[in-house]
Amino acid sequence: xxxxxxxxxxxxxxxxxxxxxxxxxxxxxxxxxxxxxxxxxxxxxxxxxxxxxxxxxxxxxxxxxxxxxxxxxxxxxxxxxxxxxxxxxxxxxxxxxxxxxxxxxxxxxxxxxxxxxxxxxxxxxxxxxxxxxxxxxxxxxxxxxxxxxxxxxxxxxxxxxxxxxxxxxxxxxxxxxxxxxxxxxxxxxxxxxxxxxxxxxxxxxxxxxxxxxxxxxxxxxxxxxxxxxxxxxxxxxxxxxxxxxxxxxxxxxxxxxxxxxxxxxxxxxxxxxxxxxxxxxxxxxxxxxxxxxxxxxxxxxxxxxxxxxxxxxxxxxxxxxxxxxxxxxxxxxxxxxxxxxxx
Length: 343
Known about the structure:
Elements: H1 6-20, H2 25-32, H3 37-43, H4 48-55, H5 61-80, H6 86-95, H7 97-112, H8 124-127, H9 131-135, H10 140-149, H11 153-160, H12 167-189, H13 195-220, H14 238-244, H15 249-255, H16 262-275, H17 279-297, H18 305-329
């Protein structure tokens, strides 16, 4: 990496300025105390995401939810439009395929059951203007053809292998899509400058994705099969994860006591025991992932790692703002939400 590169110097200044305009827990907690969506957005207007919602004159939660889905694409376009290093653009494009994978899973699900599950209005398929066509897909062939037109060939190959579409084949395809996404991302990150920190970041993301599955299994007292877990995590093999999924909650926490994830799991178990709400798994693990990745990536400047930090931080911001605005819209007690807004 050429640290004197003008493109990296410009990108570093731009990304650090954007980082300074990030949302903060005090902003979110202030917004949480408001009685209307309009007032809540005013409370976070000092952040980039708050300003984006304000400029789009958002007044209802449904409007906010739609614009929150388009915010990440808009932010990337703004940050990478001028003089951005090719490696950063490549990371952004690859990372955003996670939303394509989500939408492909929804399309496959719709072929199996009459269920109008919603798509996400972000990612490459959405950017190409083809999400409506994906929504209208009535066969595996329709989906495969669309993915080829979007240059999502690795995922098109998985869909092409589906013959008799049923719930078993759908589940198998979903696992393969997810595994292919992480495999593709790792392959390219390993070739870039600062590959060590980029690969470690990806390993943490895979660990947390797998630990979410483990925790659901433990709390619901059902074991998870080894093939459900994504290989390539930073600390855990699929074999170890499958073994942990058979334990009781205290045993699971004890097994992971000396890992970076111990406090995360303790918080999840404690919250679940108090509330009996499995949504705690997502909210708490997302907050911890954001913290881990910020600690790892934020010191990196003149580096493609800056765009990975931007993407993961913005995702956390989007989820947090959505949670706050939904709480305000539904007039939920502040105490039900405030604990999930720590960074």
